[in-house]
Structure formats: structure tokens, C-alpha cells
Amino acid sequence: MHIDIDTDTCVGAGQCALAAPGVFTQDDDGYSTILPGREDGGGDPMVREAARACPVGAITVSEAVG
Ligand code: SF4
Predict the structure, then answer these.
(1) pLDDT value at residue 63
(2) Lowest-pLDDT range, 26-30, 31-35, 53-57, 61-65?
(3) Tens of pLDDT along 2-45?
(4) Could you give the count of Cα atoms lying within 13 Å of 46 in the half-sphere of its Cβ?
(5) 10 Å Cβ neighbour count for 34?
(6) How far is the CA of 41 from the centre of ligand 1 (A)?
(7) C-alpha–C-alpha distance, residues 28 and 46, integer Å
(8) Distance (Å, whole) CA 48 – CA 28
């Protein structure tokens, strides 16, 4: 799994950090960022929930190929 956050789209709603606090956090400006080393989601099933919860669809979850 690979997670991308479109930081141009993110409005800092914080829904992702609420849904999956083990993967997402918010930076000093309130925008979403991925915790260090968690770009692969860390096997957290809440990652997809967080992507759905994002009101502007800024989170893309893709399956790693191979
Ligand atoms: S839920 Fe979406 S808009 Fe809100 S902080 Fe996360 S990525 Fe940004």
C-alpha cells in the first residue's frame, strides 16, 4: 500500500488524523501529513477509512505493485 496526500487539495480538516491517528498527523499549519515511516500505511485498516473521510478527496491509497 502507498499513501499520497495532495497537499494542494488538503484543507486541513483533520478527518484523516482522527480516523487513522497511527498514520496521519497534522503539521504546524494544520495540514495533513503522514507520520515518518508510515507512507506504506503500516498495515492499518483505518487508512482506507481515512481516505474516505477526507471531505476533499486529498488522500489517495494505492496498492503497491509486485
Ligand atoms: S482529511 Fe483531507 S483535508 Fe482533512 S487534513 Fe486530512 S487530507 Fe487534509
Answers:
(1) 87
(2) 61-65
(3) 999 999 999 999 999 999 999 999 999 999 999 999 999 999 99
(4) 11
(5) 20
(6) 16
(7) 23
(8) 24
**Ligand 1 pocket: which of 7, 9, 24, 32 to mutate (most atoms <8 Å of CB)?**
32
User: How many Å apart are CA 10 and CA 55, to the nearest integer?
Assistant: 9
Q: Whose CA is nearest to atom 2 of ligand 1?
A: 54
Out of 4, 8, 9, 15, mutate this one to test ligand 1's pocket (max ligand atoms within 8 Å of CB): namely: 15
What's the gap in Å between 58 CA and the centre of ligand 1?
A: 6
Q: How far is the CA of 11 from the centre of ligand 1 (A)?
A: 6
Is the CA virtual torsion 36, 37, 41, 42 positive or negative? Answer: negative
Query: Which three cell numbers mark 14?
Result: 483533520
